[in-house]
Amino acid sequence: MPRIIEDGVGNRYALQDPVELTTAPDDVRLATESEPWKNYWRMLGTVLLAFLILYWGIPTVIIGVLVDEPIVTLIGGVCSILPLPFLFLLHKPKMVHVRFATPDSAGKKYHPLPEGGSLYTSEPTSFSRFLTPDDSILDLPPHRQVWVVFTLTIIVGILATLPLLNEYTETIGILLYLILALPLWVIGFSIPVFAWWATSSKWLGLPTRRRDAEAWLIAGMASALPALMINSFIFPTLMPSSLSASTFNFLMVTISAPIGEETCKLLAVCLFLTVIRSPRHGFQVGFTVGLGFALLENCVYVMGGMFGGPFNITLTTLVRGIGSIPGHAVWTGVSGFAIGCLASETDIHSKIRWRLKKVGIDAVDMVEGWGIDLDGDGDTSGYDQYRETLEEALNSAPEAASPSWMLVDGETGEIHQAQGVEDLTPVGTAIVTATAAAQMRVTDGVHLLPPRNVFAGLGLAMSGHAIWNGSSSLVSHLGPAIGLGSGASLLLELAWIVVLVATVLTLAKLLMKSIRTMPAS
Fold first, then answer.
1. What is the pLDDT of residue 424?
2. If 0-12 CB within 10 Å is exposed, 13-18 middle and 19+ buried, where does residue 1 land?
């Protein structure tokens, strides 16, 4: 009903109410402006807040409880709670209010708006409005651009080391490093993760909702907490006190870290089991979860390197940026691939949904059995709606609809192919001879796929992690054991790191190349 208002001189006006919100159409496609570096700042804010909660707040609470110190517990609780509102602000669900005006000879030229005022159109239009979730695609910068930033960071770190090598410029070098230390830490731990995120998005060629990708990254960060508890509290209590420090540390990096960390990351991937569509999608989820874990861990390691001077922080940034980070991502990607195989081959999505619904129905039955009308239907007879069987749920499971995105030039309106997104072309059906097929295989190169079994994939991830950690630890002791000096021992360690990094990078490239050829869903 129109509202009647009266101005200061007694004139009365009828104000129409805005049209009611309607349901968003299924085929709606919204345009968003490309802001690739905005995701970096959001990711950076998230990891700093997560670091405060997971590496300072919650462990401090646990320590305070164990040593019976209420003040320590209180400080940890404050550090755990204060960042939460800021995390919510960074990742709060975003809704888009769409106003839709279409030419209609029976329509109007003025349409009242809920915030006041009205929309004027030059010709009669019908007007509707609706709310829809912000399903913007994950928008990342070109991966080469991010790697350039990483390379410049390494160069700056090397240049900051040079003045410290000469006693005449040492004071200048110290002052310079005091200025550069914080930027080198922030950029050094975050940019390589962002670079691998952009690189994997290009290589895998799967368009992804931003909110989905950020959820995977945050799940990886969260998985660092139980892994930290295993490494810091559980594993040490299981080891005999008679072990030497070197033996304990070796067992820590070869048993506790691989088993605890890879298991926790696998469980983080399982949180998205109901939405993983294929092995390729599972690898993408696992790779991103691994990046989230590596991002938080990298924050700690590069911070430790920062206190060792410019050479130390630069070396730590380089080794972790091109070795440890893709290592974490690849191992979790292997586990995610197996989860994707499980999801695509066993109808586990429908089974989980049915089980969750059954738990809800059983809860209603139990509460109403106590005489409480939980569902508000006026009786306490339990769940009164139709109870779907598992077979019916499996047969009626809807096909997952793949989102559709286009890359549009903001000035010309021309549609482009997005970087790294596969172009679906018709599959050829021509007959190929055995000789031609052999030549195609040679041209196509080596294909490498992870195990399809979840336990085999997890075992491979743990083994790769253990080999990296264990061999690095052994090589660090090998030099002194065979009589090498400190300089030669350092060169031996660096040479082995080069071998490990080259191996991980080769595996990452082969895996992504092979997995990219698999169906997206």
1. 43
2. exposed
51, part of any domain: yes
Instruction: Give me the domain span that covers residue 181.
Output: 143-349+447-516
d(CA 338, CA 352) in angstroms, rounded, equals: 17
Residues 164 and 88 occupy one common structural domain: no
Give the residue carrying structure tokens 């861990």.
Answer: 297
Residue 96, C-beta contacts closer than 8 angstroms, at least 6 positions apart? 30, 131, 132, 133, 134
Tally of residues, the chain: 521
Strands (E), 48-176: 95-112, 118-133
Q: Which of 272, 302, 274 is nearest to 287 (CA)?
A: 272
Q: What is the pLDDT of residues 265-314, one digit of tens each?
A: 999 999 998 888 889 999 999 999 999 999 999 999 999 999 999 999 99
Which residues in the chain show pLDDT less than 50? 419-429, 440
- The Cα–Cα gap between 483 and 489 comes to 9
Both 85 and 153 in one domain: the answer is: no
pLDDT score of 112 = 85
CB 289 within 8 A of CB 332: yes
| Residue 3 dihedral angles phi and psi, to the nearest 5° | -90, 140
- β-strand pairing of 118-133 with 21-22: parallel
Q: Is 435 exposed, middle or buried (0-12, 13-18, 19+ CB in 10 A)?
A: exposed
pLDDT of residue 160: 94
Asked if residue 172 and residue 288 are part of one domain, the reply reads yes
Give Cα 414 distance to the centre of its chain: 31
Name the 3-class secondary structure at 126.
strand
With H, G, I as helix, E, B as strand and everything else as coil, classify residue 175. Answer: helix
Say yes or no: 148 and 72 in one domain: no
Q: Which pLDDT belongs to residue 413?
A: 58
Q: Is residue 455 part of a domain?
A: yes
In a domain, 326, yes or no: yes
